[in-house]
């Protein structure tokens, strides 16, 4: 990254005190659960567009083809970046499908991905003043992204076993090959 861009890469995560509180107060109203829920149809269209671009009856990777581009495409939609420019923006951002705590004191079978797990609140989005403003949009994206492939392709089937990322702190997929 060019040196002149570095000052602009600072996020609220690196801020504390008055500066963090001031910026949080300015942007928080746009990220309430109610405001985010109103965005669901637009996220649904983005998910449908990503899935619609995939071939039927052939193996596709839902991590590479859906989970990775989705968060940046949603951000682009929020700030008004045209669809034609979004692939370039995907290269500027990094996204993760999600994370889950793996503390065996808090979670039964912490190494198993359990989408219905409801044992304890995890810290994937931090807490207190540093609670992630993007937590509600991220949760909504995950809900839509997990249900849309099943709704669109009731015969969805694994193409082969998913691959995990070598990450001791989270249960992350490197790939999720399926046939739509």
UniProtKB/TrEMBL annotation:
Its domain of life reads: Bacteria
Residues making up the signal peptide according to the UniProt record: none
The record's section on InterPro entries has: Cyt_P450_B (IPR002397), Cyt_P450_sf (IPR036396)
> Gene3D superfamilies per the record?
Cytochrome P450
Q: What's this protein's family per the entry?
A: Belongs to the cytochrome P450 family.
According to UniProt, the name of this protein is: Cytochrome P450
Q: Which organism is it from?
A: Nonomuraea ferruginea
